[in-house]
Each structure stands twice: as structure tokens, then as C-alpha cells.
Amino acid sequence: MHLSGELFVHQAGIDAPHIPYTGSAPALTDLVGNHVQIMFDSLITAWPLAKSGLLRALAVTGEQRSSVVPNLPTIAESGLPGYSAYGWIGVVAPAKTSPEIVDKLYASIKSALENPELRNRLTEEAAEPVASNPDEFAKFISNETDKWGHAVRDAGISVE
Questions:
Q1: Per-residue pLDDT tens over the stretch 65-123
Q2: What's the angle, vertex CA 66, arms to CA 64 and CA 68, rounded to 5?
Q3: Cα(113)–Cα(120) distance, integer angstroms
Q4: Phi-psi region for residue 53, left (φ > 0), alpha (ψ -120 to 50) or beta?
Q5: How far is CA 29 from CA 20, 25, 41, in A?
Q6: pLDDT in tens, 114-148
Q7: The whole model's pTM is what?
């Protein structure tokens, strides 16, 4: 979430300090308490507070609107074209895994993600399941590595 905010600040050309927290819970507490004015967080943790009226959801960070909150615009739609940031989870294997095993794993994962019960459960948790094939996923990882590498360098972030 830190990097999503840094990417936003950089692309918007604004100055906003990063306030480090040890997790979403203390940051959300400060946001609800009006000690901070804005936060980048996942739908899983922030949406229940927005639904209850304690927070105001402004936009989603992905390239497309969320199926969980389809009326909430993306940041790009809200005036910052080209902005896109979202968390993702993927399945990887050792580099020397045989193509036959990779194909079998992909087929199993794709089949599982086509199961309506699993898709519904994931969607309820604000996840957007995607069954990219291994080549698509490799390209996605490469693009994400480039994007976030630039974001880290532009923000001057370093490991302390």
C-alpha cells in the first residue's frame, strides 16, 4: 500500500508525506479518528468501514472498477490517467520445472478458478480472480517489476 501511495504522489506531482504504520489496523484507526486525511488500503480491510459510513471511499487503484464496488471509479477515471496499482497473488515454480508440469499446474489452477463457488468466495473477499497462462504471467511479473522499481527509485525508498 505504501508503494501505491508513492506511485500516486509521483504521478500526480504532489507533495504528501509518507506516514509509516505497522499495519492497516492502526492506520485505519488514525484515519477514522481524523489524525490522517487519506490512506491507500485494500478493499478487504477498508470496505467494511466505508460501508458502515466511518470512511469515504474515493476510488479504486486498479485499471478497472472492482466488481465488489462497481460504482466506485478508478483513480485513472477520477483524473489521473495511467495510474494503476493493485496487490496480486500468483503461483510460481522453480525455473527448471518441466513444461509438462507447468502446463498441468496451470490447467488445474485455471479449472479451480472457473469453479463458480470458488469465484464467488474470492469475490466476496474483494479478490478478482484471473487465470493468466504462464507466458502472460511472466510478462505481467516483468512489467510489475519495472513499474515498482521505478516507483521505489523515484520515491527514494531504501531498506533501513
A1: 988 889 999 999 999 999 999 888 899 999 999 999 999 999 999 999 999 999 988 88
A2: 170
A3: 10
A4: left
A5: 13, 6, 12
A6: 999 999 888 887 788 888 999 999 999 999 999 99
A7: 0.78
Query: Which contacts of 14-18 are long-range, i.e. CB under 8 A and separated by 24 or more positions?
Result: 18/155
How far is C-alpha 82 from the geometric centre of its chain's CA atoms?
15
Please determine, looking at this structure, whether the domain spanning 2-155 carries the CATH number 3.40.50.10420.
no
Q: Is residue 44 very low, low, confident or very high in pLDDT (cuts 50, 70, 90)? A: confident
Cell triple for 112: 479451480
Angle (CA) 35-53-79 rounded to 5° is 75
